[in-house]
Write a structure and sequence with these properties.
single chain; alpha/beta; Rossmann fold; 7-stranded parallel β-sheet; 20% strand; globular; binds zinc ion; Isochorismatase-like domain-containing protein; NIC1; Isochorismatase-like_dom; Isochorismatase-like_sf
């Protein structure tokens, strides 16, 4: 039933995926959005999966593989970690990823990133990593990361496709279009490197305050909306010669 609905939606909203080859001669940055225990590790908190989830574990594997290649090449990596003050709720969600708890830390498969010199870690207290990068002095950690590294192409992976990934990609593309992010040109969202959570209708109906959130549908819609803002949606990401796209 759910997969039939997902198939119907995919027919009505067809999404063209691209096989993206990242040029070896230009700077490409990798952004990891919230690949932390509170969203990915079974039983880790209010917004963590209750049981193993194929889309989420696939996202972790793909992201870890990409992160490994970026670190081997010494290319810039930025990791956002959702980290909330205990007294500042983020509605409509229950308390999650409170600062100082293991919920707000990278999943075990990515913890090694903390020791890598090419990796910037940014804890954020909101959905949108772009806004969450603003510091007290008005500077922006993400904007500075793009400019300092002279990033031309950016690959985005993480969770949730339709919430924190989409918000960050949307803000980034508006900022790029306004000329605030030079030399950034391309924003690539890697489909299998993204995931979202699953609250099917029958579960939401029996859970007070829960929003319906069928995983396959919302993942697809999130990717589609990112494409609507101008992101390139990739079915695969590889590394190649200089004259290939993008
Ligand atoms: Zn949050």
């Amino acid at each position: 039933m759910v997969s039939q609905t997902a198939d119907l939606l995919k027919n009505e909203l067809p999404l063209e995926l691209e096989a993206v080859v990242l040029p070896e001669d230009g700077v490409t940055g990798l952004v990891l959005v919230d690949i932390i225990n509170g969203f990915c590790t079974v039983g880790a908190g209010n917004l963590a999966p209750r049981e193993p989830n194929r889309q989420i574990s696939g996202m972790i594997n793909e992201s870890a593989t990409l992160a490994r290649v970026f670190c081997e090449k010494n290319w810039p990596v930025l990791a956002f970690l959702d980290s909330h003050h205990p007294n500042k709720p983020e509605e409509p969600y229950p308390p999650h990823c409170i600062s100082g708890t293991d919920e707000s830390n990278l999943v075990p498969a990515l913890q090694w990133l903390e020791k890598e010199t090419n990796v910037t870690i940014r804890r954020k207290d909101c959905f949108d990593g772009f806004l969450g990068s603003i510091q007290d002095d008005g500077s922006n950690v993400f904007v500075d990361w793009v400019k300092h590294n002279q990033i031309k192409t950016m690959v985005v992976v993480g969770i949730c496709t339709d919430i924190c990934v989409l918000d960050f990609v949307s803000s980034t593309l508006s900022a790029r279009n306004l000329g605030f992010l030079s030399p950034l040109e391309k924003v690539v969202v890697y489909s299998r490197g993204c995931a979202t959570f699953d609250v099917p209708l029958h579960v939401a109906r029996n859970t007070k305050g829960a929003l319906v959130h069928p995983q396959e549908l919302m993942h697809h819609v999130g990717l589609y909306m990112a494409k609507e803002r101008g992101a390139i949606i990739a079915s695969e990401v590889s590394f190649g010669a200089q004259n290939q796209q993008p």
